[in-house]
Amino acid sequence: MNKTPSHIQNKIAEIYEYIAKDDNGLPQVPVNLTPILEKFDIKAYNTSFKKPDIAGAFDRPNKTIFVNATDPQTRKIFTLAHELGHYFLHNNAADVLYRESKTAKNTLESEADLFAAELLMPESVIRFYWPIAESIQQLADIFSVSYSAMLNRLRYLDFI
Ligand SMILES: [Zn+2]
Questions:
Q1: Full-model pTM
Q2: At what angle do helices 136-143 and 147-156 cross, to 10 degrees?
Q3: Separation of 113 CA from ligand 1 center, angstroms?
């Protein structure tokens, strides 16, 4: 049974309409977020934050996501998906939300992380690759996520 709250699952299902599918009808991985940005007219930029430890930010009035340019590619993608989570789930939140690595996570941040994990690592696709992949790292590479993101996801879905 999927532990993810239904309002998040429903939103993800809605968004998957804009994601390419493979021959098995599963979302193509790594999930390409560009069609979502285009469909919903959301801008995304690489930037350097003056304050350390900020991975990304979402500027709601301008529908613009900022991602830390110096982060590894896998983290940038996760940050982008996380900020999209704020766009789709948190209409009434503050105008600008920052993703920081060192602070304790509040509900909004946890929800955005869960949204990102659901979006980038669909359970159906993990289920497909799980018997094939030789290692967690290989699985992480297939989805273009970090080792720790995949590890968290596998634990969350009770694969390990
Ligand atoms: Zn956030």
A1: 0.93
A2: 100
A3: 8
